[in-house]
Design brief:
Layout: E1 2-4, E2 8-14, E3 30-38, E4 43-50, E5 57-64, E6 74-78, H1 92-106, E7 113-116, H2 118-126, E8 134-138, E9 143-144, H3 155-160, E10 164-167, E11 176-177, H4 193-200, E12 217-218, H5 220-225, H6 238-243, E13 247-248, E14 251-252, E15 259-264, E16 267-272, H7 279-292, E17 302-307, E18 314-321, E19 330-335, E20 343-349
Parallel strand pairs: 6-7, 6-8, 8-10, 9-11, 10-16
Antiparallel strand pairs: 1-3, 2-20, 3-4, 4-18, 5-17, 5-19, 12-14, 13-15, 15-16, 19-20
Length: 351
């Protein structure tokens, strides 16, 4: 056994609210990690939780990290009204940009969050040397043909170099369109099923799209982080994701996954496996994943909700985790499970 102090602090979030009414006037929750004792197959963590009488609970999540550094990339949301959409609401991009920026800003995410047009997005993807520090969010279901089409593929080398591509809407890789071009006229530039295979590899997605698919079992990571997205229309195959070293981050059925992370090269794809109809809810889920750094996890994950109503204002607890530290340590996230709460804490402990 060995004792380690916390060596890597990423951020704690204790902020003023950004817009939703009904949130608490001030953050009164606090979580501190005093030490961790690492065993061969377990870890014992000493936590100090501070709170006010109005704080009902705090949820704490822990998972081991793989061989990649857990970081908070700059986020670029594709939001260009000149481009067609597929399997998404007409306001999906605008809503995702505004809401994601708000969610991450209120939690002191620390990275840039900005909207980009197709031209700016192309510039982001060309710069593969900065890919590991960046995430691109496309929730409109269509790739601009200047970044991915029969004649261009800036996505694959960028992801392989460490970039995180977040996708939602139509099946990834299926549709590509030029500016002011509708989908009916985009057949010549779209790779369709071949585009999906080119990006994700064979056997990851099962065609055709089916609007009746809704996952009904929450994954371990989805349960720990309270991920709500349950749609699985585009047919992302659960076992294929797991077999390629990926993670189920939302809900799943016997065959399909609603939210999946698939590593490719030194980066990966975070895929919402269906339509983007409620971009507000999707943004909350995505913010939770970006804040926790779950994409850098290797599993397993464990979580506890500490009830605070009848606890002293300063409460010390010992939390036994059923795993030891992996190569890059253990990520620990804590947040207020109240929908009106806005506290977030994230830290990495290492041996």
């Amino acid at each position: 056994m060995c004792v380690a102090v916390v060596l890597a602090t990423i951020v704690t979030g204790e902020l003023l609210i950004y817009s939703p009414p009904g949130q608490k006037a001030a953050a009164t929750l606090g979580v501190a990690i005093h030490s961790a004792v690492f065993g061969a197959d377990s870890t014992s963590v000493s936590l100090e939780i501070t709170h006010a009488p109005a704080d009902a609970a705090v949820r704490v999540v822990a998972f081991p990290l793989g061989n990649r550094t857990c970081r908070r990339p700059a986020v670029f949301v594709f939001d260009d009204p000149d481009y067609a959409i597929a399997n998404a609401s007409s306001t999906a991009a605008d809503t995702a940009l505004f809401h994601l920026a708000g969610e991450l800003g209120v939690q002191r995410y620390g990275g840039v969050v900005q909207g980009v047009t197709a031209t700016t997005l192309r510039d982001v993807l060309v710069d593969t040397s900065s890919a590991y520090q960046r995430a691109v969010v496309i929730v409109t279901g269509v790739m601009p043909s200047v970044i991915f089409s029969r004649s261009h593929d800036l996505v694959t080398p960028w992801v392989n170099a460490g970039g995180l591509l977040v996708w939602g809407g139509g099946t990834i890789g299926y549709w590509s369109a030029s500016a002011r071009q509708n989908l009916a006229d985009a057949a010549n530039s779209s790779l369709r099923e071949r585009g999906t295979v080119q990006l994700l590899g064979p056997g990851v997605v099962r065609y055709p799209l089916d609007s009746r698919r809704t996952a009904n079992q929450m994954s371990d990571f989805g349960s720990a982080l309270d991920i709500n997205y349950r749609l699985a229309d585009v047919g992302v195959i659960r076992d294929a994701i797991l077999g390629r070293g990926g993670l189920l981050l939302g809900w799943y059925s016997s065959t399909f996954s609603s939210v999946s992370y698939l590593p490719r090269g030194t980066g990966g794809y975070l895929i919402f496996g269906g339509p983007i109809e409620d971009a507000d809810s999707v943004s909350i889920d995505l913010a939770q994943m970006l804040l926790s750094g779950v994409m850098y996890g290797v599993g397993p994950v464990t979580a506890r909700t500490f009830q605070l109503s009848n606890s002293p204002s300063i409460t010390n607890v010992k939390w036994d985790l059923p795993f030891s530290a992996a190569a890059a340590g253990i990520a620990i996230a804590a947040f207020d499970p109240d929908p009106d709460g806005f506290y977030y804490f994230h830290r990495v402990i290492v041996k």
